[in-house]
Amino acid sequence: MAYLSEYQYYENAGAAPTNANWGSYQFLSLTNIVNNFMLMYSGNHSLINNEERYKVLFHTKRGIQELNYDAFKEIKALEMKIFDTLTFTLPPDYVSWVRVSMYKNGYLRPLTENIQVNSAASYLQSATGTLSFNATGTVVTTTSTLDSERISGSQNSIYLNKNNNTVNDPINSDNPDGWRDYNIGARYGLNTETANANPTFRIDKKAGVINFDSTMANEQCVLEYISDGMEGGNDSLVSVNKMFEEYLYAYVKYEILNNKFGVQEYIINRARKDKSSLLKNAKIRISNIHPGRLLMNLRGQNKWLK
Where are the domains of the chain? Predict the structure, then answer.
């Protein structure tokens, strides 16, 4: 691999953007990984012989994807404002969510996933219940009652937010806030699963959106999510932490041998063991358990509890 001078690293050799190379030394590009494997692990005197480059590229990408799902702690975050439609469009590289939060008054407030269905498709029906179809024979859809009531704010909530009727129900004229003072953590038989005053959400994976209740309107939403590391299909941007370099070589070797005809079983098992042990070692390395972090947690062991 080519090494950068300090001028190239800090200033990108005068080109824009100047921060393009910051932190790049931690990572190894997809191209370098494939080239290294073809040079050092493939040949007439190696277990991998006469293997096509496209197969090595495919298995390397799959290995990087699995690392992003399992071992990497590189969580992406995206902030967007929620408007009257009460939806948040998932980013193009979204695979799975870590946390959905509302940013308000300088704090991130983690939101609760709604255990009820808050969005649905609806077919257009006549007064007798007959479905309507268009010219191509596809049933005509319309806005469902669930969606219209959720967007308008008329849908009741089982959570202790503004759409919960019991929260806004006054018990007497001396307490204008009603049950609000008694619901949060003090009511007998409180359902802790729904004891949350923040807005709620539910992810519609097929539609590619996050649906919120009406209390989220005009608020800032922060989505923390996991990607597959494929950078939108641009192979030149795909990279992996150097601590996982040896594991990726072992992963590609195992996948090729496992899918190759006529390879002895003991060779495949040995490749599998190498892959598993290298993954464990890499996870331990990247965990970066710092003594200072442990010390901060241990300082609370002598804290007095009232």
Answer: 28-72+238-287, 76-226
Which three-class secondary structure string do you get for 83-131?
CCCCEEECCCCCCEEEEEEEEECCEEEECEECCCCCCCEEECECCCCCE
pTM attached to this predicted model: 0.83
Mean pLDDT over each residue of the chain, to the nearest integer: 89
- pLDDT tens for 212-231 read 999 999 999 999 999 999 99
Cis upstream peptide for 17 (omega within 30°): yes
Rounded to whole angstroms, the Cα distance separating 96 from 216 reads 21
Structure tokens at 28: 């190894």
Task: Report how far residue 254's alpha carbon sits from residue 260's, in angstroms, rounded to the nearest whole number.
Answer: 10
d(CA 172, CA 181): 13
**How far is CA 277 from its chain centroid?**
26
Mean pLDDT over 170-199 rounds to 62
The H-or-E segment that residue 27 falls in is strand 27-29
Q: Are 194 and 74 in contact (CB under 8 A)?
A: no
